[in-house]
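Example A, followed by Example B.
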Amino acid sequence: MVPKSCIYYLVYEHPIHLRRLEASLKLLSENFTKKNPYPIVFGHEGLSKEAKNFIRKAAPIEVDIYFKQVDFSLPDYSEEILSKIPEKFVWDGIWDKNAFFSMGYRHMCRWFSGAMYLDPFFDKVDYVMRLDSDSYIIDNIKNDPFQVMKDKDAIYGWVDTFVDDENVIVGLNDFCQDIAPSDNDIQSNLAYETNFFIQKCSWFKSDKWMNFFKPIDESGYIYSRRWGDAPIHYQGIKRLASEDKVIKIDIPYHHGGDFHDGLLKK
């Protein structure tokens, strides 16, 4: 095991979310933490006693678990920026009923884009693995990905990429080119699937990343244009990190839907 490393879930109190989290934790235990008992941190805005007890019961018995409250509030933006931030982000004239554009979702995007590293908690962490409530490790992990990251001195580990919708990356590529110019051939609409990643915390806490994140954060575009952490990770890492420091993590992994009795159900 790699010291000072942890698995991190951002959780909220919703029956579907908790149901999927329970399945995710069961599979995590069966396929990884029984042999590699890394601590699990549950970030949250606020959880009832009942929800915390549910998570404690669902969590792998072989690991230490921690609850860490996060502050999801808007930064101290000017009135001009605040006036451009809708409570509900409308996409092609339609409100997304799955809440992928809700204010809470945009807070999450800001958090994983870099705001998490403003929290001194991460001063004490070397590597962090993010998982969603519907992140499923569906078979045994043969090689500890934390150890792989350390052995390769990598700063970022990813499992897949996807093409993001043009409606939620308006202006992002040009903005990033202004703040972090690069001659690299960067596909403007490509993004890392950030429902899973491993980060070397010291690199993301450094000026290199934070000087990239800060102007994005100060623009308010995460809220007004719904720029997500997935394309922000991709843009920044492609511009700031050498290729040998960014590695694809080879694990049996699935994201999305419910997982019951070995079967995925959408």
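Example B, a separate protein, is given below in the same form.
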Amino acid sequence: MFGKEKYKAINEKLNRRFEEKKVLIAVHRGVWCGNIIENTIEAYDACRAMGADLFECDLSETTDGVLYMFHDGGEWRVLGKDQSILSMSSEEVDSLMCRNGLGEPSGRYLQRFEQLLEHYTNGELFNVDRSWPSLAKLDEIMQKYPHAISQAVIKTPVKEEYLEFFQNCSNKYMYMPIAYNMEEVKKVLSYPDINVVGVEAILSSEDTDLFRDESIAWIHEQGLYYWANVITLGNKPGHRLYAGYEDDVALAKGPEASWGKLIDKGIDILQTDWPYQLNQFRKEKV
């Protein structure tokens, strides 16, 4: 069981999924190509149909306090506008049609976070990313959808202000720190009233304590899962999220060269852009 005994009821759906699948597949912004736009219900439904166990949902807050499912920084690529969504009103956002995979008008628009909470009511699991500037707003919205408290895994960087929020929040959301070393993991665990269920490990190379087998074993001993990002973002500095064990390697050299090695290492969740292929491999591997 992952998570603390006192939060067992909240974590039940997540743990049931682990019992069923052993290793979970998380998907980066859903499956988005063609005329399906990233971070939309259509993209999330598509990845679930391909075998995903949970999907990543990015959030951005507009100047009038509306949370959209969108990763800020991608405005030009997705919306054709060279302006941060964080400086727009919801009226402005609603007026912008998304571009599709060919850069053409898609006929689709960004969706609000509340649309996700209204749509997924049957225990579907999702990971909330990029919400840390808006944790109070996130909590305010989530309180209107109590079913989602046992569906959402919320992650943030390891900063005291975020940890204090989850420590003092009355809703004990499933929480996952974005950690770069074991010191950060231990800092999170020093807060007794945070419902920590796992750790997202970010490492550019194997020369970090988070990659060591004994560290992974220790994290498991604390009742936490271990999450690795195998997505391939590009070749710029900072794009290597898990020491080169990436989707590109799995697709070019075979799944054992990347996905398989991480499963053998004890990784519990792999975040990918290729859920169908990873799911087919998981059926054989696990």
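On Example B: The chain has twelve helices and eleven strands.
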